Amino acid sequence: MTSPRALLAGALLALLTGLAGGLLLCPDGVCRIAPIDHAGLALFHALRSDSTDRLAAALTWAGSLALLLPLALARMAGLRRQQQPWQEAAFVTTALLGTTLLVHAVKLLVMRPRPDLFPTGLPLPPDLSFPSAHTAQVLAVVLALWLQPGRPRPGAIWLVAGLALAGAVAATRLHLQVHWPTDLIGGALMATIWVLALARATRPASRICGCGRYPAGTQSDPP
Known about the structure:
By secondary structure, the chain is mainly α. The chain is built from ten helices and no strands. The longest helix is centred in the N-terminal third of the chain and has 22 residues, at 4-25.
């Protein structure tokens, strides 16, 4: 079962975290360039070449909703075919879509412009800069797959690999000069808060009623 109060609390905490970061970066509605933002973009600009730009432009799609949402939906469909309860089957999809909605809500409230210090490696996206949706979305999926309720937890190597992928996607956003470093931090914090809250709020149905965990004819009442 799912706790609506816990979900609401997690969503509010993630939203407030994003807004607090936006207030620090854009006090009085005027966005400033933090030293870490200038230094980070300057470092990646110095590393750029035609080949690294092409690599970053390809890898950055791993954080796109256009790629992640079909994968999350496919996982949900597969788990439902295995007769997993809806709340467990939809966990990754809920983690992803919740992260996307929260991040874009903060974008509209903070209104931070995209970087313009150096030439970009691809056309600037039409939406705003803070926080980074690509970073938040790929991290949300990685964490949700690791914390998936009602399923055996993957080995630590899978978590390390997933976090490495999320870090690589975040790096492409800096390499392509489409995000400030603090955008990545904000997106990562929001995604982490939301997914942890979702995991805490979602209790595997098997712990409550034993549903969908035993072959037909083998389930028995506890002593």
